[in-house]
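pasting for ref. prot 1 ->
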Amino acid sequence: MENLLKVILLAIIQGVTEFLPVSSSGHLVLSKHFLGLEATTGAILEIVLHAGTLISILVFYYKRLAEVAAGVFRGDKSSIRFVLLVLLGCVPAIVVGFTVKDQLEEAFSHPIFVSCMLMATGVFLIGTQFAKPGQKRVGWGNGLLIGLIQAVAMLPGISRSGSTIGLSRFLGIEPKEAAEYSFLMSAPLLAGVSLLAILDLMGNGNHSGNSAMELIVGFVVSAVVGYFSIKWLVSLLQRGRFWRFGIYCLMMGIVTFLIFSFQ
């Protein structure tokens, strides 16, 4: 029962922080250290939680996805263009993931590094309040730039949604479209990672230390919490309050840096 409660806690953290600009990877690293969750987690569990947040994206944007899918089927150029833009944004992260995978995994074992990256995220997000409002659409050039910063956000402590949406704001992209592109751009990456995990699970079995029930519960909780997190963030973006998450990230980074520095 205790292990199940820890899985639920991690699922809530994942569902909230995957979409809110506060770094899900950074919070999972810090949570393991502060709450003693190392024994509860494994690669399979973390991927199951990410799969849950993938479902929340698909459910929240199902109308848009259905519209794009129908357009692609009809040969509509704007729909095909949108799909290609999403795939273009994924390319930098895929390249980084395959070339520096070991270095990225090493970064997850250093909480002080995570704290520094949280502070960097905080400063960046606070800076977005000075971005001029714009109504631009995502294009090939700015789509690639957003994809590049998504690759940088693979570092724990750097918020993926904060980086991609924040850069979109600086590029003058309309807030609702910025959120849509950011979240849909993450969907193919989450799907790819989840597929690889399923294949590994089928080939090697479940060695995560978590029961099937714990994995199912974690998946459902992360999906439900993730859905409402997306809904809330889109609302905050439209009201111009996105930058306030920077204060939280900056303070969290400073506090955890001081704690780990004196341990």
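and prot 2 ->
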Amino acid sequence: MVIEIIKVIIIGIVEGITEWLPISSTGHMILVEEFIKLNVTPEFKEMFFVVIQLGAIMAVVILFFHKLNPLSPSKSKKEKIDTMKIWYKVIIGVLPAAVLGLLFDDWLNEHLYNYWTVAIMLVIYGILFIIVENRNEDRKVKITSFEELPYKIAFYIGVFQVLALIPGTSRSGATIIGAIILGTSRFIAAEFSFFLSIPVMFGASALKLVKFGFDFSQNEIIILLTGMVVAFLVSIVAIKFLLQYIKNHDFKVFGWYRIVLGIIVIGYFIAVN
């Protein structure tokens, strides 16, 4: 059991870092699990790789609790209304992924959760990040605050989030690319991506838990809780890092990282197979 806990800690660290950086958390966990085999049932593993992300999501809830809390007594009436408007935009942005995720969840798990899909998507979206950032170097940002974010644009960003149903794409990567293309600042793109993750990942986790059932063994409970706690703690650091980083940098470095990692993964699996 000690060995399994060490494996879960490693996976939790990977999840906490990669959930927020636009480099694909699910993709990295699939790749890590190729080398660190969890000694669990396939059904538990499928559920675990989604529900562990609840720990990462709780980091967003904690860090942005005041900003997202419309009932805060320290907020004025206008601030409370503005907070509710953020939630309305989040709900609108969530709809496309929620609907298609429910419809195609089983098909995606069966056909796309493999290292080939992950590697290809890492490269493709790495290239897209570089192209989008080069394209935006001389463009003026249209949306620099949530007050300036129209509901229509929030929905379109949600459409981009649908692309993240393919493992290796990155939910934050897809939404950030989409938001930047649609004219938001990098900071708003990143924050809106964080906020969209809250209902999406709570919903995805609930779906996986219902499908798995709630008949956990003691070891399974320990593994799941350990992964979530580690993901939560690491996510706190990762989110703060990203928000600080994008104040003075673009996302090209993540694009190059994805391309290099994708090529290494493809090369590795060609060699071993």
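The chain has one domain: 2-268.
The chain has a mean pLDDT of 89.
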